């Protein structure tokens, strides 16, 4: 959940009297004031993604901060009224020309010592009220608490909701039918038809994600997922059918988890991946277990938990050993490399990358999982680009990102946008603003088809880096075009 329970008192309205303290007690301490300015600056990025941006900015100026999603949440909740000196230097580097007050913090003098707790200062005026600011991130803020509540509602709703079709609101995508829940009346049963329906739902969700991205699909995809898990409690005539239903439900949970992951709902994604892992272990399916750990490693990397990413990727490799797929082991080695890169461990990253390339070069096999259709030379290059970017080697990262974008098959539109967004950011940081702007223009052109918070967040970060270079060739036009993008629904 986005927030935890707090002691009982309700803050008084602005200008009104403070609530009376309970009998026999002293004055109540003031409740923290939400830092709305800092939340506004985060934009559509998740707390974990923004924490990764903070750590990257710290490396740029030689600082070391252990920023994670929890720290960002405490800042936004007002629990951290003024950052320590290391964070102060990082935040002022990220937002040049602003003061701590401009970022929603209280003066250091107001929070030092006992007297500072007597009263909380009025929050600073929002940035929008001080005059126009270039829209570093103009997209609608996601309500993670609301999405979590809605996900649980899907998982516990009645069979009547099965009629809802999986249709992207952002693109005219074909509907995906949910699996049938059960026979009306009598005992609930499931058989071959239900197993096929679950497997078909998985395939169609993957196709829609490849073409359009996750943002318009996530909430609707939870409907067939809920039904799939209902089927696990239905009677089946054969153990093989029950195993297929469990495997299908696990894969569907992973697919829906990926939609949550790609649209910035990290808590939801973690929950779905955990469901998939539990389902895989209940039926002893090593393939689903490896897939669940693979995605968990990717999520941990993006959420700023690189050590967890390494361990999850290694667990995935142990599960995958018996499957006989070098390509799967190659992808899992890349997941491990991403974790090492996040830890700043270049030797560990290089060893994992070398292992990934060696396994990839062994070629395809009949044992390769169906879900790995996206994994080819383009994805190999794209994930290696992300490793070099995390290590701060921008020029090298740009070379791999360019190769990824050039090699990507046309029907993987979302991945084309992703690799090109990575290229734009790497070029911007490598000191090549004109090339970065040209790549950014290509990403903007794809946003009519692709609805992915991940891609938009990457593009927003590139815009931030390019702002001081507006006069460079093509940069001003790109920034203007980005500023004119419509807000996603």
Notes on the protein architecture:
With 489 residues, the protein is an all-alpha fold. It is 57% helix and 0% strand. The chain has 20 helices and no strands. The protein has helices spanning 36-42, 47-60, 69-77, 85-94, 108-111, 144-156, 192-212, 218-231, 239-262, 266-283, 286-302, 306-320, 326-342, 346-360, 377-390, 394-407, 413-429, 433-446, 453-466, 475-483. Helix 7 packs parallel to helix 9.
Major sheet attributes: none
Instruction: Give the overall silhouette.
Output: globular
Strand content: under 5%
Number of helices: 20
Instruction: Please report the distance between the alpha carbons of the first and last residues.
Output: 23 Å
Low-confidence stretches: 1-29, 113-182
Rg over alpha carbons: 24 Å
User: Helical proportion?
Assistant: 55-70%
Number of E-state strands: 0
Topology:
Layout: H1 36-42, H2 47-60, H3 69-77, H4 85-94, H5 108-111, H6 144-156, H7 192-212, H8 218-231, H9 239-262, H10 266-283, H11 286-302, H12 306-320, H13 326-342, H14 346-360, H15 377-390, H16 394-407, H17 413-429, H18 433-446, H19 453-466, H20 475-483
Helix pairs in contact: 2-3, 2-4, 6-8, 7-8, 7-9, 8-9, 9-10, 9-11, 10-11, 11-12, 11-13, 12-13, 13-14, 13-15, 15-16, 15-17, 16-17, 17-18, 17-19, 18-19, 18-20
